[in-house]
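Translate sequence into C-alpha cells.
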Amino acid sequence: ELDAPHFGHEVVKRLVYRAVEKGGEALRQALTLLKALLACDAFDHHQLTIGMQRSVMGLPDLCLDVPDAPERLRTLADWLAFENLVSPSFEQAVILKAQERQEDGKNAGADKVQTYAKFIVEEFLVCQSGRDAAKSVTDLADSSKHPELVRRILIVALDKSESERTMIADLISSVCVRCAMEPSEVEAGLEALIKQMGDLVIDVPKIVEYVGRFIAHFLEDRTIPESLLASIPNLAGPKLGPELSKAVGEILSLPLPVTQIKRK
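Result follows.
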C-alpha cells in the first residue's frame, strides 16, 4: 500500500526499533512479522539486510533511551540468523556497536577488526553495495587499522568460492574509489597477507593462486602500484616468492620476470 518498493529497509528498521524499545514478547512478534512480510514479498532479503544494518548502525542513539538495547537487538538478530534470514555476523555487529558506545568509537582492537571484516564481507556478498561497505569501513573510526582490515578481509575471502573472492576484491577496490580507504592502506594490507602466506599454506593449499589473483585484480584496477611486484620475492620468501611472481605473471599474461614487466 505504500507504493514505495524501495522503502522496505526503512519499514524493517522502524519495526526493529519499535520491538527493541518494547522488549520482551515484542521481539518475538517482530520476528514473526518480519517473516510474514518477507513471505508475502512486502520486501526482499536485500532490504531486510539493509534495514537490519541500519538498525545496528543506529544502536548508539537507541541506547540513550533503552540502555539494554544491545542485548535486545542481539537477541532478535540471533533469531533472524537462526531462521537463515540474515547473516550470523549481525549478532557480532551488535556487540561491536555496543562496545563502540563504551569506547566512544575509538581504539579498535584485533578482535574488533576481525569482526568488522567478517561483517563487511557478508554484508557486501548479500547487498553488493560499495556505498554501504564504505560506510562500514568509515564506522571503524580508526584509519590506522585499515591495513589490518584489508588483510583480514582477504583472509576471509580465502574460504570463499572463486566468484565470491572476485566480489570481495571488488569490495576493497570500491571502498578505495569512495575514499573510505587509501590505496596505500590496501597495499600495506596486501603486503601483510603476502608475508603470512607461509603460515596459511597448510590450511589453504591454493593460497599462491588466490593471492596471485588478488594482486592481479588490484593491479588491473590500479588500486595498488606496479612497484609491489618487485617486493614479492622478499615479502613471500624464497620458496613462495618465485611461485607467487610466476602466478601473477600467468594471470596477467605477462612475460617474466614480473619485476620487470609492464601491463599490456
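Note: DSSP finds 13 helices and no strands in the chain.
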